[in-house]
TrEMBL record:
The lineage of its organism: Eukaryota, Viridiplantae, Streptophyta, Embryophyta, Tracheophyta. One of its GO terms (biological process) is proteolysis. GO terms for molecular function: cysteine-type endopeptidase activity. Belongs to the peptidase C1 family. This is Peptidase C1A papain C-terminal domain-containing protein.
Length: 229
């Protein structure tokens, strides 16, 4: 879940698509990427989601809206939803699935050096990062997060949108979570920058989406065909 929602947000924040005001479908990635992207609602792999965007494209949110408008506030909350089925049909009968697809022209990893990450954000917009979530992170309210106590809860992918330095000289990253706006600082948080806190600088991925709605035929030779059925 976290991979697909973050992916959609990062794309719609990119300067390459902002002129079109596109909102891309979480459901398309969640339901149709299949096991190669991960385990649907139970998590996935950011770089694989971006590669799906390159090979298959992603339809608009208008074509295939997110199946749950409320979502889950944080790990362990209920209810848990099963991954929806991939139907490859727009909810509006006057829209065609294949004509609603938008594509990325690339999917790539960024070096873990903070300077390289900052350069990528400055040039192309937000990136997607993965990190290890501990129990104390679920209770974050404000300030610069650093893991202090609690067990590992799992991995998580979020949108890295910027950076800064606190009044007392502590460097941090600024990130957007997706657990809802009542969590953290209106859904956002800061985490220590430059020391790979909780692995935040280890797995940084992004892509460059096309500004045009490129139509591609899905063939049996496509690397995702079997997985998305």
């Amino acid at each position: 879940m976290s991979v697909t929602r973050t992916n959609r947000d990062a794309l719609s924040s990119s300067p390459y698509v902002s002129l079109q005001n596109l909102s891309l479908s979480v459901n398309d990635l969640l339901a149709c990427c299949g096991f190669l992207c991960g385990d649907g609602c139970d998590g996935g792999y950011p770089i694989s989601a971006w590669r799906y965007f390159v090979h298959h494209g992603v339809v608009t949110e208008e074509c295939d809206p997110y199946f749950d408008s409320t979502g889950c506030s944080h790990p362990g909350c209920e209810p848990a939803y099963p991954t929806p089925k991939c139907v490859r049909k727009c909810v509006k009968k006057n829209q065609l699935w294949r004509n609603s697809k938008h594509y990325s022209i690339s999917a790539y990893r960024i070096n873990s050096d903070p300077e390289d990450i900052m350069a990528e954000i400055y040039k192309n917009g937000p990136v997607e990062v993965s990190f290890t979530v501990y129990e104390d992170f679920a209770h974050y309210k404000s300030g610069v997060y650093k893991h202090i106590t609690g067990d590992v809860m799992g991995g998580h992918a979020v949108k890295l949108i910027g950076w800064g330095t606190s009044d007392d000289g502590e460097d941090y990253w600024i990130l957007a979570n997706q657990w809802n706006r009542s969590w953290g600082a209106d859904g956002y948080f800061k985490i220590k920058r430059g020391s790979n806190e909780c692995g935040i600088e280890e797995d940084v991925v992004a892509g460059l989406p096309s500004s045009k709605n490129l139509v591609k035929e899905i063939t049996s030779a496509d690397m995702f065909e079997d997985a998305s059925a």
